[in-house]
């Protein structure tokens, strides 16, 4: 493993909402879903700090980074994030990614493991296995069609989607993320060696039971599948159970 300079402060890509955990023995890095932002994981940070140092990824093109160009490729995002995350691997690190964030966390983990950095674990939530493919083209729809899909999945407050000014501001990032997620194609390579925990909702239209089980082939380490009541954003109603699962792993 190459020697890294350990960061003192977070920056544009990495956020820490509760500094009380920065001296904890374990670090949790969270990757948002398509159209999501680092603030989605504020409740996770609040719940797990100070027992863990919780960091959240902020993609370009949203919130305080809204004036930066979006990246619409998982490969580009993973390449950029591997460089950003690498210095934070000075202690046991676990990734948590939801939806597009699960795919992205997996690809960043692959890059880090190729360099000799092995994660303590990876939680892949609300996303089919990388090697499974669907021909999805929501990112090619007009604005109304794109917003209709977001509303259907209930991933964004519908009151926010009813504000035309906010919609105009967030739509480019949402479309770029959808394009990244839908055009991603897994490139065969070595499986991960870290523990892999797959979390899914039992009525998620984007993940079938078979697609969730297919994650098992992507690690040679321990594997576990947990199914919760709910749809794509089962996290909203099952937060306590999911946090307990993460806490058990970190503990």
Automatic annotation (TrEMBL):
GO MF entries: hydrolase activity
Pfam families xref list: Thioesterase
Keyword annotations: Hydrolase
Q: Which Gene3D superfamilies does the protein's record reference?
A: alpha/beta hydrolase
Question: Iron-sulfur as a keyword?
Answer: no
Which residue numbers delimit the Thioesterase TesA-like domain? Answer: 29-250
Q: Which PANTHER family match?
A: S-ACYL FATTY ACID SYNTHASE THIOESTERASE, MEDIUM CHAIN, THIOESTERASE
What's the family?
A: Belongs to the thioesterase family.
Q: What is this protein called?
A: Alpha/beta fold hydrolase
Origin species, per record, is: Streptomyces flavotricini
Q: What is the lineage of its organism?
A: Bacteria, Bacillati, Actinomycetota, Actinomycetes, Kitasatosporales
